[in-house]
Amino acid sequence: MGEPLGQLKVTVVRGKGLVIRDFKSSDPYVIVKLGNQTAKTRVIKSCLNPVWNEELSFSLAEPVGMLNLEVFDRDHFKADDKMGHAHVSLQPIVSAARLRQILKVSSGETTLRKVAPDGDNCLVRDSSIACIDGEVVQDVWLRLSDVESGEIQLKIKFIDNSFSGTR
Question: Across the strands, what pairs with 155?
Answer without folding.
Answer: 11, 139
